[in-house]
Design goal:
This protein has 384 residues and is of the alpha+beta class. It folds into three domains: 125 residues, PAS domain (Beta-Lactamase, 2-Layer Sandwich); 92 residues, Helix Hairpins (Orthogonal Bundle), CATH 1.10.287; 148 residues, Histidine kinase-like ATPase, C-terminal domain (Heat Shock Protein 90, 2-Layer Sandwich), CATH 3.30.565.10. A five-stranded antiparallel β-sheet has the order 2-1-5-4-3, sandwiched between helices. A hairpin with a 2-residue loop joins strand 4 and strand 5. Helix 7 packs across helix 10 and helix 8 packs parallel to helix 9. The longest helix is centred in the middle third of the chain and has 57 residues.
Amino acid sequence: MTIKHDYAKLLGSIMKKAPIGIFILDKKGNVVAANSAMKKIAGIKSEKRLLSINLLDWPGSKKAGLVKYFKAGLKGKSFELDNVKYVTHLSRKTTYRHYIIIPIKEKKKVNGLLILIEDITSRVKANHELVVSNLKIHDAYKRLKSLDHMKDDFIANVSHELRTPLTSIKSFAQLLYDENLGKINALQKKSLKTMLESINRLSTILNDVLDISKLESGRLDFVKKKFDLNRTIRQVISELEPLALKKNITITFKQKKLPLIMGDERRIDQVLTNLIGNAIKFTGFNGKIIISVKKYAKKATVSVKDNGIGIKKSALPKIFDKFYQAETELTTKYPGTGLGLVIAKQIIEAHKGKIFVKSTYGKGSTFSFTLPLKNGLQKNSKPA
């Protein structure tokens, strides 16, 4: 049995159809057979030229460091080599190849080599481009993170700088409104009332922007302590009831006996103020708001239901998105930052709870959130 005739004949049909390059060498390293795919990879069209090559002496093999593997293969060892950088001898083109080197044995004696070669240049280049792209993305991410920190610091500084004079202006306006500095006429009283309302809105905006910045950067601390959720709800209702009375809105509270909850009462108060305040804002005159507390398993669920204007179905998936405010006929009348619900969501999620909404446009909305009855606060919390 000879390598040149018998093995070439045996592998002929396979070699002809194989999509990868195939070389068959004799025990001296001479190419005795090669398929069409190998001609394409080698860049040699002439079969006669290809069959005149000895891979042990071929310049391309030497430069790529392959000769030692071919020699070891002729001694009976098999190899699989990936990402082999290969410069073609004729075109001087740099390519990358995958090699499988298999000894051809007859009666335990090596008579030659079967070499499978795949051109993986496209794959290697794609991987390289991917690595470069990932590095660029990583660098861009680092720059964005740095800018994000700068933004947070800027917002914190601006909020602080604005809050101090705003407090002074509000205090002075309140003194004037309460006539502690002398009598004022009806027009002055009305103007001061408008001023105080504007100051309160600006103060709310500053607080919202500062809170969302701290929440997103993980720098908002939560002070955990046990508190009575029902009492907190009653306090918020008491604070907001004057706004409801102006529109003749009735607020009903259906409370449920609960154990004390471990969490940040001030932040839960903030969530309740936002939800109940929104219910009052978007409910018409003579409307109704029902606040209920239910206990299920190890969770407390608080719901704020109104019979106001409701939310369009298309707006519901975006209602907790930053800066989003559902378009209604009241949006221009009651402008906001679009941050209140985002802040509420992040506060509730920081307590390992969930917040969700059900609404029918034109009939009203129900905003609900859950709180675990045991300690639910995540990191960034500290005991009172």
